[in-house]
Amino acid sequence: MSQLFDLTGKTAVAIGGNGVLGSAMAKGLAEHGAKVAIVGRNLEKAEEVVNEIIKNGGEAKAFRADVSSEDALMHLADEIDKWTGGCDILLNAPGTNSSTPFFELGMDEYDRIMEINLKGIVLACQVFAKRMIERGRNGSIINISSVSSTTPLSRVFTYSVSKAGLNSVTQFLAREFAPHGIRVNAIIPGFFPAEQNRKILDKDRIENIMRHTPMNRFGEAEELQGATVWLASEKASSFVTGALIRVDGGFGSMTI
């Protein structure tokens, strides 16, 4: 059974792997044998994650890249090729948020959030999936969505729009890439203590979240590792593509 989740010999590229959730998922991939590229704008944070992985017996390397720049992603892909020969697993976990009210929202802020949360993932899929196809190797792309992607949450207009778009991208590319042996899925996390949502978690909002979360607690970042490793494994999830997997403590099942 353990062989189902063995990622030995695979290279995972974790974009946003220096964040709270991205780093936890990247560590899970490393613990199951994958070599992991930790990618982020902040190289110092990426190197901290790499050091933790190496300390626990894994193999990883830090890379700096701006996910909204095609040139930066092309350069990143070249560096990954030199390091391990290419990407097998692409974990798209970049993210930024804002609680700016709709009528106060400027287009500069809107564009910045959309560039990171949506455009950046589209570019990453273009760059890395194309190389997977050219090499004739199967692959897994895992996009990190949000509960706000299906039923928009208050206070996070642009974030919700970007994540709804990401779900559509995930399902479109699942169909597009299936003939090439590349699976594309998304994880929909519930409320986790990530940096981008702490600033809008006041007392009233926390109470509202708990009323809509049957498990009555926040998630721990490590609780995303199981779904990540499962979707990354060619053996364990070989017939899974175009799926939107909820890891949300039941949030998506609640109405009143």
From TrEMBL:
<dbReference type="InterPro" id="IPR020904">
    <property type="entry name" value="Sc_DH/Rdtase_CS"/>
</dbReference>
<dbReference type="GO" id="GO:0016616">
    <property type="term" value="F:oxidoreductase activity, acting on the CH-OH group of donors, NAD or NADP as acceptor"/>
</dbReference>
<dbReference type="Pfam" id="PF13561">
    <property type="entry name" value="adh_short_C2"/>
</dbReference>
<dbReference type="InterPro" id="IPR036291">
    <property type="entry name" value="NAD(P)-bd_dom_sf"/>
</dbReference>
<dbReference type="InterPro" id="IPR002347">
    <property type="entry name" value="SDR_fam"/>
</dbReference>
<dbReference type="GO" id="GO:0005975">
    <property type="term" value="P:carbohydrate metabolic process"/>
</dbReference>
<protein>
    <submittedName>
        <fullName>Gluconate 5-dehydrogenase</fullName>
    </submittedName>
</protein>
<keyword id="KW-0560">Oxidoreductase</keyword>
<comment type="similarity">
    <text>Belongs to the short-chain dehydrogenases/reductases (SDR) family.</text>
</comment>
